[in-house]
Amino acid sequence: MEEEVVDCYLKRLQPGKFLAPSGTFGVSVKIRCIFDKGLFRELALLSEHHAEPEVLDHLSVYKGETPLLEWCDAFCNNGQMFLSADLSEERVAAFAKQLKLSYATLESFTKRLRVGKA
């Protein structure tokens, strides 16, 4: 990761242990930071002259120590984003719509996996 990208994250460094799942592979820099509008703005500016994988590869968002979002291989064409079951389906649907993506509940996703349609 380029120095200016790491600096973007380090400006928002949050004390505490890195919480991403132990099975998270290929993460070159592990930083726990504050997730706010300022981070999004700065990442958007950095993305103007950096390839997407240079800005972000894995994203985990927590409230305290509770995972809200896990997005491994964020820019992989078939990468899935996993959201907390504590979020209402209405809220997830609105989020997916903003991203112009479809969504599925874990139950329907695993059902599709079993029949080979995921």
Proportion of residues in helical segments:
25-40%
Shape: globular
Q: How many beta-strand segments?
A: 3
Distance between the termini: 32 Å
Strand content: 5-15%
Write down the secondary-structure element order.
Answer: HHHEEEHH
Largest sheet: 3 strands, antiparallel
Number of helices: 5
CA gyration radius, whole angstroms: 15 Å
In words, what does this structure look like?
This protein has 118 residues and is an alpha+beta fold. Helices cover 36% and strands 12% of the residues. Strand 1 and strand 2 (66-71) form a beta hairpin.
What features would you highlight for this structure?
single chain, 118 residues, alpha+beta, 3-stranded antiparallel beta sheet, 5 helices
At a glance:
By secondary structure, this protein is of the alpha+beta class. Helices cover 36% and strands 12% of the residues.
Task: Describe the secondary structure blueprint for this structure.
Layout: H1 3-10, H2 37-47, H3 52-55, E1 59-63, E2 66-71, E3 81-83, H4 89-99, H5 106-114
Antiparallel strand pairs: 1-2, 2-3
